[in-house]
Design brief:
5 strands; five-stranded parallel β-sheet
Length: 114
């Protein structure tokens, strides 16, 4: 039985240390996720993770495919404002802390990447 899960992404890499390796790992994770059948209900992007929804990266293309497959993608509005990139959003919607909190507390499982 499939559980409703949420991806909570707070950075542009997986893990700490070598940034290039972390970027490769994050890209590979999203590509494998997109190829599979078990998709998250939501992808929540916060902190530096919001940059994945505005910058031209391999992850952006995968996020667009996931959105077309029905995954709801939200980028933290406060974070977008902090980085002054809200007008550059290329996938998903601007979210707020109330909505993000509601999604997290109702999720069966939360996977934290970042």
């Amino acid at each position: 039985m499939s559980q409703r899960f949420v991806l909570f992404v707070t950075g542009k890499t997986i893990g700490q240390g070598e940034e290039k390796l972390g970027e490769k790992l994050l890209t590979a994770f999203f590509q494998v996720l997109e190829e599979g059948e078990d998709l998250p209900a939501h992808i929540l992007l916060m902190h530096e993770g919001v940059k994945l929804s505005v910058e031209e990266t391999p992850v952006l293309d995968v996020l667009k495919v996931l959105e077309r497959k029905g995954v709801k993608i939200f980028s933290c509005g406060t974070c977008l404002d902090y980085y002054n990139i809200k007008d550059q959003l290329k996938v998903g919607q601007v979210g707020n802390m109330y909505g993000i909190k509601d999604i997290l507390v109702k999720a069966d499982k939360i996977i934290n990447l970042g």
